[in-house]
């Protein structure tokens, strides 16, 4: 029974707007993470970000102390 419901839903999802499809994927990933006993699995987008950060670090691209202070100052309440 669940397989038919799932198959029908997946067919309908293909006609949903992209934002709605992405939201469904996010919810499914959260459920999957809970089922994996708290083991978090990064999304492909997050993995790309991690790779960019590691590449930048290996290339010596770091924020200066002044960059960090400027960023904090921008968001501190006045």
Q: Order of helices and strands, N to C?
A: HHHH
Main beta-sheet annotation:
none
Amino-to-carboxy terminus distance: 59 Å
Low-confidence stretches: none
Shape by Cα distribution: elongated
Query: Approximately how much helix is present in the residues?
Result: over 70%
Helix and strand content put the structural class at mainly alpha
Q: Percent of residues in beta strands? A: under 5%
The total domain count is 1
Number of helices in the DSSP assignment: 4
Mean pLDDT: 89
Number of strands: 0
Radius of gyration, whole Å = 20 Å
Structure explained in plain terms:
The protein has helices at 2-13, 18-35, 44-58, 65-75. With 78 residues, it is mostly helical. It has one domain (17-75). The N and C termini lie far apart (59 Å). The model has no long low-confidence stretch (mean pLDDT 89).
Which helices and strands occur, and which strands form pairs?
Blueprint: H1 2-13, H2 18-35, H3 44-58, H4 65-75
Give a summary of the structure in a few sentences.
With 78 residues, the chain is mostly helical.
Features:
mainly alpha; 72% helix
């Amino acid at each position: 029974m669940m397989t038919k419901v799932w198959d029908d839903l997946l067919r309908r999802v293909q006609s949903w707007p992209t934002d709605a499809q992405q939201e469904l994927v996010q919810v499914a990933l959260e459920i999957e993470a809970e089922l994996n006993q708290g083991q978090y699995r990064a999304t492909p987008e997050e993995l790309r970000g991690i790779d960019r950060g590691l590449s930048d670090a290996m290339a010596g691209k770091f924020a200066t102390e002044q960059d960090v202070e400027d960023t904090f100052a921008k968001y501190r309440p006045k």
